[in-house]
Amino acid sequence: MLTATNDFVVKFANVNGSGSASANELFAKAILRMGVPVGPRNIFPSNIQGLPTWYEVRVSEAGFLGRRGGVDLMVAMNPQTWAADVAEVEADGYLLYDATKPLPASAFRPDIHVIGMPLSGLCAKHYNDPRQRQLLKNVLYLGGLSYLLGVEPEVIEQLLGEQYQGKPQLAEPNVQAFRLGRDWAAANLAPIGLHVQRADRVGDRIFVDGNTAAGLGCVYGGATVCAWYPITPSTSVAEAFEKYCRKFRTTPEGEKKYAIVQAEDEIASIGMVVGAGWNGARAFTATSGPGVSLMTEFLGLAHFAEIPATIINVQRGGPSTGMPTRTQQADVLSCAYASHGDTKHVLLFPEDPAEAFEFSALALDLADRLQTPVFVMLDLDIGMNQRLCRPFEWQESRHYDRGKVMSVDDLEAGKPFGRYRDVDGDGIPWRTWPGTHPQRGAFFTRGTSKNADAGYSERGPDYVQNMERLLRKFVTARAMVPQPVVKPGPRPGRYGILYYGSTSPAMDEAAQMLEAVGFPIDLMRIRAFPFPESVRDFVRQHERVYLIEQNRDAQLRTLLVNEFELDPADLHPVLHYDGTPITARYIADRIRASFAADHVEERAA
After folding, report:
1. How many CB atoms lie within 10 A of CB 580?
2. What residues make up the domain containing 510?
3. What stretches of 466-529 adopt beta strand conformation (E)?
4. Is 87 a domain residue?
5. From 168's CA, which of 53, 451, 495, 517 has a CA 20 to 30 Å away?
């Protein structure tokens, strides 16, 4: 019998639209309330109702928040996926199912422990309404799990009260169903080898999703304009921004100090953002890969005319419609080089909601400083899943950095001005906002080729000078963007691993797995493009470097090879792109297998 305390994986297999999501989330929150860290993942279809959905909860007192791989306890409530769900259970693990109708022995595995609860039968006996029976069945198995695992019932009942606060007509039947399930389990089942024990390992960390964090970050970062078009999985960024603007950007008299526009499409939304940025407002849009595809012409305009714009891109599976409710890091190349011609954009790669908050605010600063579009590269795993992270931090003394903006006093004093002139070698010109001066209309911009004073020009030298200046500005950005985080191994590492974004929590655990089998490694988490020189140095300092990505084509690897002219053979890709978040076991197994295969080839040669 598999035994573990505060260190196991529970997975719920349900049907979309069955009301299971709230009960499964309550399970995760109850363990969190007992002081034990959890890392939940909601894996759901893009249709409204009827297809399979899963909710996986990593319980880890050690604090591992990424997916481990494997399932210790499967709560199998979906006949459609029964065989695959049963197959996923670890040997000697547990399977909880609805035993109202008996199943043949062939439906089970002999090497796992089967736990049956007559959930449908209990609901039929105690509830008359068909919809109520469906919804409360989820709460019944929550009650059974609380007994089997030792989750304190008072914690779950408190959470139910909070969820249905002010709605006693909903709270009472849910609490009754929870007690019914727990009482039945206590009378008919025995606790299993997996156990939750109260701890104090959560500390002051908060439990929040990345989209909410990004929306709040945009408020703190000074955004006053949001133009967007609904698209999964980014819609809740704009919704969070509106929620916090109502709280922080509305006067006591009810006057709104912000503008949120749901545009007719993504093209219009980015056009509004660029227009607002040109006019001096801090503006952003939230979208996903298909939206970025539609925005590329305006992104090219903003890049070449040098207008600030911030894009929160919550990545999903592609191409085309792809997998709208699955996660990938699949937009790296399309965002880095968005638009035609020689175009490069700044990308920020947050690892969790805390950095989603920080980088969204920072992106607004960088867009102003660099006078260019800046992407915050979230993905569905960070954006839509709740994650335990450090509290958000904000310095009250922090001032918004608007970059090189000339005031009316500067212009009146005759300060030399050329809209596209590089005066100090960093590639960033001075600008003004519309209306700064009644006669000196220095805010004029061009999306076509021009000279340093914004005069129309198709002269080759003028075009080359402008393009080279834009490249100098991109190099300047290297020192402005978040720098990589290096985590040296406990021993000098011959091998290095590069990774970024939502791969981070699984990578932290995979590193320990590799160290445990004598594989010494150093880690570098890349946090932005353009890449600082320290990334190239890291590659050169290690005999072998693995690059972990959640896409098929090793997109970040392509960027590294292209930007630093590296030998592709120096970067060994480890790729995961089935739409589910990468697991620690997958990373460790692939690195060991790659290393072993390469050494076999070397010995054969």
Report:
1. 18
2. 485-604
3. 485-487, 495-500, 521-526, 528-529
4. yes
5. 53
